[in-house]
Design goal:
single chain; 3 helices; 0% strand; mainly alpha; 85% helix
């Protein structure tokens, strides 16, 4: 994928907004929905990773890998917990 520098920045800002929104949601909600929280974090990490393919910063890329991994773990954990509640 070959995207322009400006588009990469816009995609990165959208990813940043996702992560900040997820954090604000987690902090401000009495009972946050883990699917909303982790999906938004995963989307943010994915968008920031796309941006980092144009504006490479290895420490940030590693951070996004772990951010996405934790979000995926949270989604799997929430999915398993919802299956136990339905049974």
């Amino acid at each position: 994928m070959n995207i322009g520098s400006d588009l990469a920045n816009y995609i990165g800002f959208a990813g940043m907004a996702c992560i900040i929104t997820a954090y604000a949601y987690q902090t401000g909600s009495k009972a946050p929905n883990p699917f909303v929280q982790h999906s938004t974090n995963l989307m943010g990490a994915a968008l920031l990773t796309i941006s980092l393919t144009v504006h490479m910063n290895l420490p940030s890329l590693v951070l996004e890998f772990f951010w996405a991994s934790i979000a995926i773990y949270g989604l799997v954990k929430a999915w398993r917990a919802s299956g136990r509640r339905e049974s």
